[in-house]
Design a protein that fits this description.
435 residues, mainly alpha, globular
């Protein structure tokens, strides 16, 4: 059985081992475990029961990650997406006054549409329409993005009305703990310690506990609470209340966030083959669409690929075993969800900062001497972190790329989908401005 599994997951070709894959899965889980606490806190503001959403978060992340690992065999973990959960709560439910049951119905419909787009091959064509020259910029931009998230989560940088951002208070004990974590993880990477990111996170957590810097409060939680949100979605209501606006946003943002994450993680892992083809891409897209449908059924917002998967890739993860390990840990979290608070943000944030730095290596592949490529690549690279959105950064890159090709006479009929997507992005930006 072990030999069969090693052949199925292509351990020999990928140059990986069980120890490496399991450690990578642990690393990915630890860096994204915050979602077990954060997602329920956001969705709870809609009136959804906190314990039920906590269980739904764990279950949907487990199903999505295990499905990705088994079916697509990629080291990409899934969970309810940040940003989309905020849209679900603050725009759809609180601003538009739509019941959370109806909003779940809209998430379900977007997942079904995803499945149809995957079955017809349209999502695969959309992925292939992204100019291959922008792939390194997407990976680099997401590296800056997750580093920015890490720096902010650690309060190493903070908001400032005069300069937008500025240096945080380095005398703060938690900031000092995060800086220690950055130094520790960076040192372990320099020393090429296997699983260095995971050990760095655990070491930083241990120091935090030793100096009593980590607050931890248990919250009431029962696994059976998931019944309060399971199958409570209102699909009929979603078909009548703002269907096109609500479902389209869930669909559009998730589609391009997913594609951006997919490009970045597979590129970093060296899994993109000649011609910028991603093997088994239809299975990847089927896994995330199925996870979104499953998530809506148990009671959570859109499930999507997580860029924190890059932490597992940086730890050596190359196969689906990494994602399966992460998924199994989310199943364990179903029973011990309140214990997720033992790993402080000051310990996971340093991992994002270091992984962000590792992902920047891809930008050396951009032909910066060619303005036709360099300018769209620059916009992609810079707009992902500055707009806090993978989809926005990819949109700016594709629109500028399409415009430059048209006005320099390099328009090709076979690239028609690229221009359609550029127009869709442009329409979305105009719509966002109007809103």
């Amino acid at each position: 059985m072990r030999s069969y599994l090693e052949r199925y997951f292509e351990f020999a070709r990928l140059g990986t081992t069980w120890r490496t894959e399991v450690l990578a899965g642990f690393t990915t889980f630890v860096t994204m475990a915050y979602i077990v606490l954060v997602n329920p806190a956001i969705l709870h503001e809609t009136g959804m029961p906190l314990a039920a959403v906590t269980a739904a978060t764990c279950l949907s992340a487990a199903v999505g990650s295990i499905l990705m690992g088994v079916l697509a065999r990629y080291p990409i973990a899934l969970a309810p997406g940040m940003g989309l959960n905020a849209y679900f709560t603050y725009t759809v439910v609180l601003h538009l006054g739509i019941p959370w049951q109806t909003a779940l119905g809209a998430v379900f419909l977007s997942g079904i549409i995803f499945l149809l787009l995957t079955a017809t091959g349209l999502r695969q064509k959309i992925l292939r329409s992204i100019p291959s020259e922008l792939y390194p910029a997407v990976a680099g931009g997401i590296g800056l993005f997750i580093a920015l998230i890490g720096l902010h989560d650690a309060s190493i940088i903070v908001g400032d009305r005069a300069t937008m951002v500025t240096l945080g208070n380095v005398r703060s004990p938690l900031v000092a703990l995060a800086l220690f974590g950055v130094a520790l993880i960076a040192l372990l990477q320099v020393l090429k310690v296997r699983g260095g990111i995971l050990f760095g996170i655990l070491g930083t957590t241990a120091v935090g506990w030793a100096f009593r810097l980590v607050p931890w409060h248990l919250t009431p939680y029962h696994l059976s609470s998931i019944a309060e949100t399971s199958f409570k979605l209102d699909i009929r209501g979603a078909l009548h209340v703002g269907f096109f606006e609500i479902v389209f946003v869930f669909l559009f943002v998730d589609l391009f966030d997913n594609l951006g994450t997919l490009v970045a993680v597979t590129k970093k892992a060296g899994l993109i083959q000649n011609g910028n083809e991603i093997p088994r891409v239809d299975r990847i897209l089927f896994a995330d669409a199925t996870a979104t449908v499953a998530g809506s059924l148990v009671g959570t917002s859109t499930v999507t690929s997580y860029i924190e998967s890059a932490a597992g890739v940086a730890a050596g993860g190359r196969s689906g075993v990494t994602a399966i390990t992460t998924g199994l840990l989310f199943l364990v979290a179903l029973f011990v969800a309140p214990l997720m608070g033992v790993v402080p943000m000051a310990a996971t944030a340093p991992a994002l900062i270091v992984v962000g730095s590792l992902m920047l290596s891809s930008i050396s592949e951009v032909p910066w001497e060619d303005p036709l490529i360099a300018f769209p690549a620059f916009l992609t690279l810079i707009m992902i972190p500055l707009t806090y959105s993978i989809a926005n950064g990819l949109g700016f890159g594709m629109v500028s790329y399409a415009v430059l090709r048209v006005f320099t006479g390099k328009f090709r009929k076979e690239d028609w989908l690229l221009y359609v997507l550029a127009l869709m992005f442009l329409a979305r930006f105009i719509y966002m401005g109007a809103g």
